[in-house]
Amino acid sequence: MTWTRKVQALTLLKPVQIWSFVPTLFFFVPTPWEWIGSVLGPLYYPMRLFWGATQGQAEWWVMVPGAIVPGVAIVWLLHRLERTVYT
User: Fold this and answer.
1) Residue 23: closest CA among 35, 11, 15
2) How many C-beta atoms surround the C-beta of residue 39 within 10 A?
3) Contact predicate 25/34, CB 8 Å
4) Is the whole-model pTM more than 0.90?
5) pLDDT digits (tens, 9 = 90+) for 23-80
6) How far, in Å, CA of 21 to CA of 1, rounded?
7) Which of 34, 56, 65, 85 sits at 20 to 30 Å (Cα–Cα) from 75?
8) Is the pLDDT of residue 3 over 70?
9) In the chain, how many domains are there?
10) DSSP string, 25-37
11) Residue 84 CA, distance from chain mean position
12) b/e burial code for range 1-13 (CB count within 10 A of at least 16 → b)
């Protein structure tokens, strides 16, 4: 029983690891594609702030979508959880 749960956890974590690596790829693409790709995940915005800070361009306005996008995702997930659990 424990082996099946470990295998299930590994199968769920592998896409999460790949998904968290995607914002790193946007460092190497031109700026318009960078902003289009930022919709894919909330990890992009803290990384964008870090990249700007290392280049001496602290773009603090990036934290606004960095707070909104994960907030919307959390609210959506909570609503989905409530529908799943309570229906």
Assistant:
1) 35
2) 10
3) no
4) no
5) 777 778 887 777 776 676 667 777 778 888 888 887 778 778 778 877 888 899 899 9
6) 31
7) 34
8) no
9) 1
10) HGGGS-HHHHHHH
11) 23
12) eeeeeeeeeeeee
